[in-house]
Design a protein that fits this description.
By secondary structure, this protein is an alpha/beta fold. Helices cover 47% and strands 20% of the residues. Helix 3 packs across helix 4 and helix 7 runs antiparallel to helix 8. Bound molecules: S-adenosylmethionine (SAM). The site of S-adenosylmethionine has 22 residues, from helix 1 and helix 4. S-adenosylmethionine binds next to helix 1 and helix 4. InterPro entries: SAM-dependent_MTases_sf (IPR029063), UbiE/COQ5_MeTrFase (IPR004033), UbiE/COQ5_MeTrFase_CS (IPR023576).
Length: 245
C-alpha cells in the first residue's frame, strides 16, 4: 500500500503528507474533533494562552502549517483583534478552507494566507514577533531546517511556540492512547474520509517524533534560548516555547 508501515524516505515524505491533507481538507476540522475527542481545542487554547499575544496594534505572528486557521483565529481573538497573523501552509486546499472560515468569522482583515514551505519561508529576517506551529512540524521532512527558518524570521525578542503530539509517560494512559491511535483513529479515518491508510501513516509519524526533551534540544540547537515545554493531557500533546534573544 502507498501509506503502509514501510519506511518512508525523506524525499517522498512531503508528497505523502501533501496527498493526505489535499484529500481531507474539507473534512479536516471534523476529523480533528473526532480523533482527539475534542481535546485539540483545549490544547490549542492552552498554547495561545501561553503565547499571550500582545494587545498593542501591529503585533505580527506567523502561524506555520496553519492549515484551516485554528491557531491564527485564536491569536487574533486573544489579541483583542489587534494582531496581524500570516497563515502559512504548503497545501492550498487547507488554506482555502481556512480562508472561508476566516470570512465567516469576519476575521479576514487580520489574516493573510500564504502558500509556502516551512523549510523555506518567503519572508525577510526579523519579520515577526511570534512564530507558532501546531501539529505541523512532525510532517516537515527536515525539522532542523524549519527550526532555523523560524529563528531567522523572528525579530530579536521574538517568541517561538510549537504544539505537537508528544510522549505519554503515564502507566495505563499510555496503553489507552496506543489502542486509540492504532485501533480507533484509522477507523474514524476510514469512516469519514473513506480511507485508513493516510491515518496509519500519521499515527506512525507521531511515534517517530522526538520526545519532549530531545525536541527541546533540537530547538536549542536552532539558536533559541530559555526553551521549556508544557505537557497537555499527560503528554499526549506538548507545547514547546523558546525565545530569540
Ligand atoms: N495547524 C493546524 C491545526 O493545528 O489544526 C493544521 C495542522 S495539520 C495536522 C498539518 C498541516 O501541516 C497541514 O495543513 C499540512 O499541509 C501542513 N504542512 C505539511 N508539511 C508542510 C511544510 N513543509 N510546510 C508548511 N506546511 C506544511
Amino acid at each position: 500500500t502507498a501509506f503502509g508501515f514501510r519506511k518512508v524516505g525523506e524525499g517522498e515524505k512531503q508528497g505523502l503528507v501533501n496527498d493526505v491533507f489535499s484529500r481531507v481538507a474539507e473534512r479536516y476540522d471534523l476529523m480533528n474533533d473526532l480523533m482527539s475527542g475534542g481535546l485539540h481545542r483545549l490544547w490549542k487554547d492552552a498554547m495561545v494562552a501561553w503565547l499571550a499575544p500582545s494587545r498593542r496594534p501591529g503585533f505580527k505572528a506567523l502561524d506555520v502549517a496553519g492549515g484551516t486557521g485554528d491557531i491564527a483565529f485564536r491569536i487574533v481573538e486573544a489579541s483583542g483583534y489587534q494582531a496581524q497573523v500570516t497563515v502559512l501552509d504548503i497545501n492550498g486546499s487547507m488554506l482555502a478552507v481556512g480562508r472561508e472560515r476566516a470570512i465567516r468569522r469576519g476575521l479576514e482583515g487580520n489574516l493573510t494566507f500564504v502558500e509556502a514551505n516551512a523549510e523555506d519561508l518567503p519572508f525577510p529576517d526579523s519579520s515577526f514577533d511570534a512564530y507558532t506551529i501546531a501539529f505541523g512540524i512532525r510532517n516537515v521532512p527536515h525539522i532542523d531546517t524549519a527550526l532555523s527558518e523560524a529563528f531567522r524570521v523572528l525579530r530579536p525578542g521574538g517568541r517561538f511556540l510549537c504544539l505537537e503530539f508528544s510522549d505519554v509517560d503515564m502507566p495505563i494512559l499510555d496503553r489507552i492512547y496506543e489502542a486509540w491511535s492504532f485501533q480507533v483513529i484509522p477507523r474514524i479515518g476510514k469512516m469519514v474520509a473513506g480511507d485508513d491508510e493516510p491515518y496509519r501513516y500519521l499515527v506512525e509519524s507521531i511515534r517517530k517524533f522526538p520526545n519532549q526533551e530531545n525536541f527541546a534540544a533540537m530547538i536549542r540547537r536552532a539558536g533559541f534560548a530559555r526553551v521549556t515545554w508544557r505537557d497537555y493531557s499527560g503528554g499526549i500533546a506538548a507545547a514547546h516555547s523558546g525565545w530569540k534573544i
